[in-house]
Fold:
Amino acid sequence: MKNDCVFCAISEGEIPCFKVYEDDLVLAYLDINPFSEGHTLVIPKAHYTCLLDTPEDVLQGIVARVKKIAAHIKATLPCDGFNVLQNNGLAAGQTVPHVHFHIIPRTGDGEGEITFENHKGDMAHLAQLAERIRMA
Ligand code: 5GP
Ligand code: ZN
Structure:
């Protein structure tokens, strides 16, 4: 764990999460303040700050997992589409300096403004939702 990094603490089991998927390389869990129902974060278990210091092979592995997890979420929720969001640096809105990819399920026809707005998560609901979409 690096510099009291909250995502390292989650990956090491020191802070609980609503887990959706885990393997040797990545951990995926629900965002506690989601933009939308099923908003999931995919992180490498190892600490890298952002896209630029993450090795290519790790990135390739993460993106392959993002695809697999997003396909599963889309089929399970279900939703009509999803955004993959990845912020780098404070100026870009990165609040947790441990590289991560957001999978943000979307519904509807895409008409109107697409917004990314956190909503305070209901912990009991997130626990149920994670159970529903957790991947074997
Ligand atoms: P960023 O703005 O850095 O791209 O996204 C960080 C995300 O992590 C935010 O959407 C925020 O709600 C989420 N987050 C921050 N702390 C925690 C936490 O302890 N647990 C979970 N599950 N999500 C967190
Ligand atoms: Zn970290």
